[in-house]
Amino acid sequence: MSTTTLDALSGRFIKVSSPGTHIALVELSQRDVSQPRNAFVEEFWTEFGHVFDKISGEPYVRVVVLASAIPKHFSAGIDLGALAKLNTYDSRPDRRALQIREFITLFQDSISAIERCPYPVIVAAHGTAIGLSLDIISACDIRYAASNVLFSIKEVDIGLAADIGTLARLPKISGNQSLVHELAYTARNFSAAEAQQIGLVSRVVEGGRDEVLHVAMETATMIASKSPIAVLGTKRLLLHSRDHSVKENLEYTALWNSAMLQTEDIKEAMKAGKTKQKPSFSQLAKLPSKL
């Protein structure tokens, strides 16, 4: 695995690079000036899921940073033209419902590739971040925002309930259910400060894209220096904890660590602690996509 291989994952809508050791930078990069900036069409979200699933199998990577390559925008959400496909479906309601369900499920699967990724994903949001942006951001492990960001759970304004992840994940993220409901029902704009208030983001960085991306890269560098086995396991156990009882999670953790406690990374970390030297952890084995 090399940084060149990561660069090769770049496509029409996504730019991939490695600006730091063991770090993959994934940037939304739809620059068609005739369209809203970083507005998702089906090809965009399909490419997005494909890129994350490819990164998930790369042993060189230990942490992913997700950002936008466009200075003033994170994402304008879904391109409403993408919904025109629904008009081509079967006219019979039952058959049409099955086709729409498949459309939504595949869309959800593409965005959930962030959560499937075994490596931590840090998002650096800035500028306009509406609609689908919230589905994407809420799927990330660590969420930072520039002070200039403008969020909106926009879906009710176009006549539908958000269906790609915001309503599934944000209530579990936030300790302020009242505000989550208010923002979802009203579709009003909200600031980085309110996003931090509900727990959507953990840090607000003064400035715009460059400033928040810089902070995200600092955190990514710190994570990339840790044992990849320990970090990968921690993500898996935290996600399991979110969706299961304490008892179930403890049982799962015991099973997981019955294998992972055999890692050489523990010996390397202890050796580094004694010698006051930086640990050198071996690279992971190549992993199958959708681990």
UniProtKB/TrEMBL annotation:
Pathway: Lipid metabolism; fatty acid beta-oxidation. The keyword ATP-binding does not apply. Pfam families: ECH_1. GO terms for cellular component: mitochondrion. InterPro entries: ClpP/crotonase-like_dom_sf (IPR029045), Ech1-like (IPR045002), Enoyl-CoA_hydra/iso (IPR001753), Enoyl-CoA_hydra_C (IPR014748). Keywords: Fatty acid metabolism, Isomerase, Lipid metabolism. Signal peptide: none annotated. GO terms for biological process: fatty acid beta-oxidation. One of its GO terms (molecular function) is delta(3,5)-delta(2,4)-dienoyl-CoA isomerase activity. The keyword Isomerase applies. PANTHER family: DELTA(3,5)-DELTA(2,4)-DIENOYL-COA ISOMERASE, MITOCHONDRIAL, ENOYL-COA HYDRATASE. Belongs to the enoyl-CoA hydratase/isomerase family. This is Enoyl-CoA hydratase. It comes from Fibroporia radiculosa. The lineage of its organism: Eukaryota, Fungi, Dikarya, Basidiomycota, Agaricomycotina.
